[in-house]
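In this supplementary section we document a worked example of the pipeline. Step one takes a protein sequence of length 150 as its only input; no multiple sequence alignment statistics are reported here. Step two produces a three-dimensional model, which step three serialises into structure tokens for compact storage. The input and output of this example are shown verbatim.
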Amino acid sequence: METFETFGNNQQIAVNITDIDTVAQQLGTPVFALKAEENPMDFEILESKENSTSFSKEQSKSRPVLAIKFVFIVDINQEPNIKKVMERTLIRYSVYDQDNRKTYYSSFINFEAEFVKISDEQFTVEKNITVVLNEDLRSNHRAFVKSLNS
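The serialised model returned by step three reads:
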């Protein structure tokens, strides 16, 4: 699973779907959720606006896996081979906060496990990214210096 490493401070983490390249029709909007690593039934669906969402780093402490799920439908009269449609689908994501920005991709070639055929006409794509919060040494240093000046 891919990771997004950043500092454990009070900033928000933002997620944008920057590009969806496919001949399939997207059903609805993507679903954004935070999930627990050990229990897939322990999740929180995030509010989203069009193709983006944001969440606090505090929320990601108990549910560190960011999940983004899409559902696509294929007109089998125009494209009878759903596997070819899946192979030609590319999704680009941007995950960022004030300290870090990273781009992720979903492509059948590199991340085949993210693509699940539901029927001859439908498939889903689910990207999972683990949020890793590292110690914010800069904030700790500022607090230490402030305590020395008190």
